[in-house]
UniProtKB/TrEMBL annotation:
Classification via SUPFAM superfamilies: Calcium ATPase, transduction domain A, Calcium ATPase, transmembrane domain M, HAD-like
Organism: Dorea phocaeensis
Membrane-spanning residues: 72-92, 98-116, 243-264, 276-299, 625-649, 655-673, 685-708, 720-737, 749-772, 792-809
Main location: membrane
Basic residues bias (residue ranges): 1-10
Topology with respect to the bilayer: Multi-pass membrane protein
Gene Ontology cellular component list: membrane
P-type ATPase A domain sequence ranges: 126-222
Alphabetic keyword roster: Membrane, Translocase, Transmembrane, Transmembrane helix
Record region (Disordered): 1-23
InterPro entries cross-referenced by the UniProt entry: ATPase_P-typ_cyto_dom_N, ATPase_P-typ_P_site, ATPase_P-typ_TM_dom_sf, ATPase_P-typ_transduc_dom_A_sf, ATPase_P-type_domA, HAD-like_sf, HAD_sf, P_typ_ATPase
Subcellular locations according to the entry: Membrane
UniProt-recorded name of the protein: Cation-translocating P-type ATPase
Length: 819
């Protein structure tokens, strides 16, 4: 019985979700299937009906209901609703012209986000993680969410563990770094447990699922993270959030002060005081800015989806557009994701006349390995026959030691990277090996060694018997792709596990700038050496997974925005740390799931179009945002001006709506969809404010002076409102003309069309937008201030530009000192 008076403890979202799952589940009956047979269909169906499936705890996208709710129930929509009610109460229905714009903007946002959600959902289905499951004695591929408790799943190199499991057959090496932070590879044998979220580095096993869906280890971490952390936002969205938060806090006290001043001190009527207060508040709200950014990002996601590019995170569009260092792997990025054996060259330790036997010795090693990487696939294709010697032990390849080995009844053989196989003897053979790597071959050393009783390889010296020469063909489109990045000022770093000379030759063939500058990562032993090498070299060979991560971190510490591409398990650590991570869909599950951007057709040549899309979006939003901020800066400063000089705010809501429509709303929509290839520089908010500030200040000076002079010459307040509206329109079109540069036919049509539109509304709908005729005194004032706006805007632009340059220089000096 619950004790009265006890304070209830608030549950987290994760705890509530967990309890919901527990309530919906039926008590489970556990099975212990044979690893060769797996569950029967009836058992699978029983677990599925009971709710014991591997369904994700975190849906990848919002539901339609959530999208509608987020777009309708916003803070600013609430403000608009309150303002609309106030205008209705005082009977000023003419000034409700802002409502259709708000409704249309909200509907556009909902429709575009739902369309983007549907497009990305289809692409996500194509890219859904799959598992190799054994059921009723047959192995088949199913979506990982279709797995059930007690399923027998086959895991091999490159697979990410999709649910907690127990190894029942075979042996694998796993990396649990994504869970524990430790990059050490751990051997898992029958009876050992596999944690979801870890990934297989080498080997193959069959495992029984012990905890699925919300019960798995990775799901518990996800639920905990969901209840404690907010999703990271891009710089652009963070900047917009700051702006919206500031305006949202400031507009309420300013609105109250304006009403009090107008009604109690200036003795305006209640209706007039409400109308002018609403006009000031509406002018301060950037009602379409956040929506414009969201819609532009959603449209970009759809455009990229049509090019077979999947975004796990929309912020990666902006990040990729800001990248100035791109780290790429050799295989699968510069070269085709295939490999072939070109030659097998015997060493002086092997007799040439027995060459067929050497091929069979290599065949013995190759036949014992799984074809879980392209190198082994190529070797299996070439060396199909063995000597038939009895196999005793297999040491599979790992990215940490870079070799494979077998212990046979008649001896032990090893094949791998020369430096790792030959170790201290490598200098003896370095000159000979360099001749092959200099031709662009990847060289593996095949040799024999004396195996120790515990089966550990390479405890003694290796006798090299032959050199296996392999090659990847360079992608046809690679030179053009890297030429584009060179033109755009993006520095390319090649980070590979292969011999640095080999990688350098391939990079030269692909047209990568400074490809002749290479280093062997095995010579980089300290963090300081890696930091220095990151800035100095272009090609890095013999890099371990941990070093890839360190190189990315070093480049970031040097002030770069770093993108990392990869397709293998050994790339996961670096992908997680990079500012933007790009994976090939044909790569390992772990790499695909760890990345923000997935190239569905695994073609690196589409990267320029991804970067261009990012630049188009960010630059165009930046342009449009400056239009919105002109109105916001003007309204905010004019409200303060009105309070300071005890004057009534001179504009009506309908007039603000007219100006917003033709100098901001319509042109911003078209500008946001225009091509834009300019490189992104500086910070979003700083760039936007520097562009908007001159026009906003010009508006305040012109309208403020007009009001003061109007009161001095006893000009009617209605005439002043009309003149102020026209002055704002003139300045608005001047700044719009500048933003449209370089002018093209579409921008020219938009600019001219908006001028025609505001003139048509003023002539044919004057009562709706409170446009009246002006007295001769008002016309004279209007003409004088209209002429003055151009030089004022010009000199303010120069002054603000000078201040911006001084500020940028100060920031750069501070950053250099900090480094």
């Amino acid at each position: 019985m619950r004790r009265r008076g006890r304070k209830a403890v608030k549950k987290t979202a994760g705890q509530e979700q967990q309890e919901k799952w527990e309530e919906e589940r039926i008590p489970v009956r556990r099975y212990h299937p044979d690893y060769r047979e797996g569950l029967r269909e009836a058992q699978v169906r029983e677990h599925r009906e009971g709710g014991w499936t591997n369904i994700s705890v975190e849906p990848p996208t919002q539901t339609t209901k959530e999208i509608i709710h987020e777009n309708v129930f916003t803070y600013f929509n609430l403000i608009f609703a309150v303002l609309a009610v106030l205008l209705c109460l005082v009977g000023s229905f003419r000034n409700l012209t802002f409502l259709p714009v708000i409704i249309i903007n909200t509907l556009i946002g909902i429709v575009q986000e739902i369309r983007a959600k549907n497009v990305l959902a289809k692409l996500n289905m194509l890219n859904a993680p799959q598992a190799h499951v054994v059921r009723s004695g047959r192995a088949s591929w199913v979506d990982s969410e279709d797995l059930v408790l007690d399923d027998i799943v086959i895991f091999h190199a490159g697979n990410q563990i999709c649910a907690d499991a127990e190894v029942v057959f075979g042996e694998v090496r796993v990396n649990e770094s994504l869970l524990t932070g430790e990059a050490d590879e751990i051997v898992k044998k029958p009876g050992d447990h596999l944690m979801s979220g870890s990934f297989v580095v080498s080997g193959e096993c069959r495992a029984k699922l012990e905890a699925v869906g919300p019960d798995s280890y990775i799901s518990q971490l996800t639920l905990e993270a969901k209840s404690m952390q907010k999703k990271e936002q891009s710089e652009m969205i963070r900047s917009l959030d700051k702006l919206v938060k500031f305006v949202g806090i400031a507009l309420i006290p300013i609105g109250i002060v304006l009403f009090v001043q107008s009604f109690f001190f200036n003795h305006e009527g209640f209706r007039s005081s409400i109308v002018f207060m609403v006009a000031a508040v509406i002018g301060m709200i950037p009602e379409g800015l956040y929506l414009l950014a969201s819609v532009a990002l959603a449209v970009s996601s759809m455009r990229l989806a049509s090019k077979k590019v999947l975004l796990h995170d929309m912020k990666s569009i902006e990040t990729l557009a800001r990248v100035n260092v791109l780290c790429v792997d050799k295989t699968g990025t510069i070269t085709e994701n295939t490999m072939c054996v070109k030659k097998l060259i015997p060493t002086e330790h092997y007799e040439k006349e027995t060459m067929p036997k050497l091929e069979k010795m290599v065949g013995d090693l190759v036949s014992a390995m799984s074809d879980d990487n392209i190198t082994m696939k190529a070797m299996k294709e070439c060396f199909r026959e063995g000597t038939g010697a009895k196999l005793i032990r297999v040491i599979p390849f790992t990215s940490a030691v870079k070799y494979s080995a077998v212990v046979l009844e008649k001896g032990a053989y090893v094949a791998g990277a020369p430096e790792f196989v030959l170790r201290e003897d490598y200098p003896k053979y370095e000159a000979e090996i360099s001749k092959f790597t200099g031709c662009g071959y990847r060289v593996l050393v095949f040799g024999s060694y004396d195996a120790e009783p515990d089966g550990k390889p390479l405890t003694g010296k290796v006798l090299p018997l032959g050199y296996i020469l392999l090659a990847n063909p360079v992608r046809k489109e690679a030179p053009e792709t890297f030429s584009y990045f060179k033109e755009q000022g993006v520095e390319v770093k090649v980070i590979s596990g292969d011999n640095p000379l080999t990688v350098s030759e391939v990079a030269k063939e692909a047209g990568i700038q400074n490809a002749e500058s290479y280093v062997d990562a095995t010579s980089l032993r300290t963090e300081e050496e890696i930091f220095a090498a990151a800035a100095r070299y272009t090609v890095f060979g013999r890099v371990t997974p941990a070093q890839k991560r360190q190189l990315v971190q070093a480049l970031q510490q040097q002030g770069n925005t770093v993108a990392m591409t990869g397709d293998g398990v050994n790339d996961v650590l670096a992908l997680k740390d990079a500012d933007c991570s790009v994976a090939m869909a044909s790569g390992s599950d772990a790499a695909v799931q760890a990345s923000q951007v997935v190239l569905m057709d695994s073609n690196f040549a589409c990267m320029p179009s991804v970067v261009l899309e990012g630049r188009r979006v960010v630059n165009n939003i930046q342009r449009s945002a400056s239009l919105f901020l002109v109105k916001n800066i003007f309204s905010f400063l004019l409200a303060l001006f009105s309070v300071a000089f005890m004057i009534t705010y001179p504009l009506e809501p309908s007039q603000v709506s007219l100006i917003s429509m033709f100098t901001i709303g319509v042109p911003a929509f078209f500008l946001a969809l225009q091509p834009n290839k300019e490189r992104i520089e500086g910070h979003f908010l700083t760039n936007v404010i520097l562009k908007a500030l001159p026009a906003g200040l010009t508006d305040v000076l012109a309208v403020g002076a007009l009001v003061v002079f109007g009161r001095t010459f006893e000009v009617n307040g209605t005439d002043i409102s009309t003149a102020a509206t026209m002055l704002l329109a003139i300045v608005g079109f001047m700044i719009l003309y500048r933003i449209c540069q370089p002018m093209n036919w579409l921008r020219g049509i938009v600019w001219g069309g908006c001028i025609a539109g505001i003139l048509a509304c003023s002539i044919f709908l004057p009562e709706l937008f409170a446009i009246t005729g002006m007295s001769p005194k008002c016309i004279m004032l209007f003409v004088v201030f209209s002429i003055a706006t151009e030089p004022v805007l010009r000199y303010l632009t120069m002054f603000v530009g000078w201040l911006g340059d001084r500020y940028a220089a100060f920031v750069n000096r501070y950053r250099r000192k900090k480094r």
